[in-house]
Amino acid sequence: MMNAQEDKAPPSPLKNRNVLALGAVSLLNDFASEMAYPIIPIFLTATLGAPVAAMGVIEGIAEATASILKVISGRLSDRLRNRKRFAAAGYALSAVSKVLLSLAASWTAVLAARFIDRFGKGIRTSARDALIADSTDERTRGAAFGLHRAMDTIGAVIGPLTALVLISAFKTGYATIFVIAAIPAAIGVCVLMLVVREPAHEAETSVQLRAFSFSPGQYGPLFRRFLFVSVIFSLGNSSDAFLILRSQNLGYQTETTVLLYVVFNTVYSLLSYPFGRLSDRFGARRVLAASFIVFAAVYAGFGFASDRVFLLILFPLYGIFMAMNEGVSKAYISGLVPKQERATAIGLFYTATGIAVFFSSLGAGLLWSFLGPSSPFYFGAGMAIVSGVLFMSGKNEILGVSAFFSGVNRD
User: Which of 88, 211, 239, 240 is buried deepest, with most CB atoms within 10 A?
Assistant: First the structure.
C-alpha cells in the first residue's frame, strides 16, 4: 500500500528551480542562435557565393560533430556525477562561436564557426537533459521537458524577429548581427552558473573514466527499438536550413522567410508544454508515433508545393511536429533507462541520429542540386512513413539491426 508521501502529487515543473533556470538559459541561447541561424543560409549563398551543396556539407558536419560528442560528454557526466559543468562549458563555446561567425569571409570560415558552436552543443546537451530528468518526478517528466522546449523556443521566436528588425529598420549587416547575438548567449552562461543546482547523485563505487560502454543492448528492447526507428527517421530529416531555402525558392524574400521561421517557432513553443503533459497522461509512445505521421505530411507538402502560399500552412504544421517530438522523445528515453545511465543513453540517441542527419543533410544538398528542390522533401516524407510503421509495429529485428545494436560495445 502506498504511503501518503508516495500518493502526494509531484510538484509542477512550473515550480522547479532547475527546470525554470535551464529553460531561461536555453531561451537566451536560442535567442542568440536563432538571430544567426535563419540568415546563415542567405549569408552563405547570397553574400559569400557558396553553393547549396556547401551548405549541406557545413550543416552535416556541424550536426554530426555535436551528435558524436553528446554520447562522450553524456558518459563523462554520468561517470563524474556532474552535469552542470558540462552544460556551462558547452554554452560558453556557443557564445564564442557567434563572434567567430561575424569574422567569416568564406564558407570554410563559416564551417569553422558552426563547428565550434556545435562542439559546444555536443558538450552540453546530454548532461543538460539528464539534469532536467534528475530534477523532476517521472510523473511530470514529459511536462518538464515540454516546458523546457517551450522556453527554449521562445528564444527561437524572439531571435529571428530581432534579426528582422535589425535588417529591415536599421539596415544592420549580417556580421554585426552575429556579434550582437553573442550578448544573450553570454548572459545565459551566467544564469546557469549562478542559479542551477547540481542534484544529489548516488555514490559511484568504482569510477573508471576509460570504461565507455556504448551498447544500446544494455538498455533493453524498447530503447533499442526507438533508437533504430529514430535513425531511420533521421536519414530523411535534413537540416531546417533547407526549409528556409525552399521558401526562397518559391519566391519569399529574406524578411518574409524569417517571419515564416518565427511562425514555426511560435507554434512549437506554444504547444511543447501541452504535448508534454499529454505524453505524461496518455504515454509518450503514442505522441511520438503521431509525430512521424505529421512530419511525413509536412515534408510531402514542402515537396508538392507549387505556390508559396502553401508554406503559410506548412511552417505551422512543422511547429506542431516539433512540439510532439523533441521534448517527448527525451522524456521517453529517460523512462527507459536507469537514472545513473541517463546522460549516456540520451547521448547515444543523439549520436546515432546525428550521424544519420549528417548523411541526410549531405544527401539533401545533392538531391536539391541534381534532382530539384522537391526531391529532399519527398525522400524525408518516405522515411518518416517507414519509421512510423516500424515504431507502431514494434519490429526492430529487421535485417538483424537489433542484434547489431545489442552487440555494439566500446569498452
Answer: 239
Name residues whose C-beta falls within 8 Å of residue 359's C-beta, 6 or more positions apart in sequence: 60, 235
The grid cell for 329 is 522523445
Query: Exposure of 16 by Cβ count < 10 A (0-12 exposed, 13-18 middle, 19+ buried)?
Result: buried
Report d(CA 97, CA 116) in Å as an integer.
6
Residue 343, C-beta contacts closer than 8 angstroms, at least 6 positions apart: 73, 74, 75, 77, 78, 83, 126, 127, 129, 130
Q: Give the single-character DSSP code of 9.
A: P
Give the single-character DSSP code of 10.
P
What DSSP string describes 183-214? HHHHHHHHHHHHH--PPP-PPPSS--TT----
CA pair distance 158, 165, nearest whole angstrom:
11
Q: Which three cell numbers stand for residue 225?
A: 527499438
Instruction: Give ∠ CA 362-162-123 in degrees, rounded to 5.
Output: 50
d(Cα 179, Cα 320) in Å, to the nearest integer?
A: 31
Task: Quickly count: other Cβ atoms within 10 Å of residue 98's Cβ.
Answer: 25
| Relative orientation angle of helices 17-36 and 107-134, to the nearest 10 degrees | 170
Cα 77 to Cα 50, 252, 273, 343: the distances in Å are 38, 44, 27, 7
Nearest to 147 by CA among 359, 357, 330: 330
Nearest to 238 by CA among 39, 7, 55, 1: 55
What are the residue ranges of helices labelled H in 4-134? 4-7, 17-36, 40-42, 52-80, 84-102, 107-134
pLDDT at 394: 58
Most distant CA atoms of the chain, gap in Å: 69
**Measuring CA to CA, which residue among 85, 181, 154 is closest to residue 124?**
85
Query: At which residue does the C-alpha cell 504511503 appear?
Result: 3
Task: Provide the pLDDT for residue 163.
Answer: 87
**pLDDT value at position 211?**
46
Closest CA to 67 of 355, 394, 266, 309: 355
CA dihedral 114, 120, 125, 131 (to 10 degrees): -160
For the chain, list residues with pLDDT below 70: 1-7, 201-218, 394-411
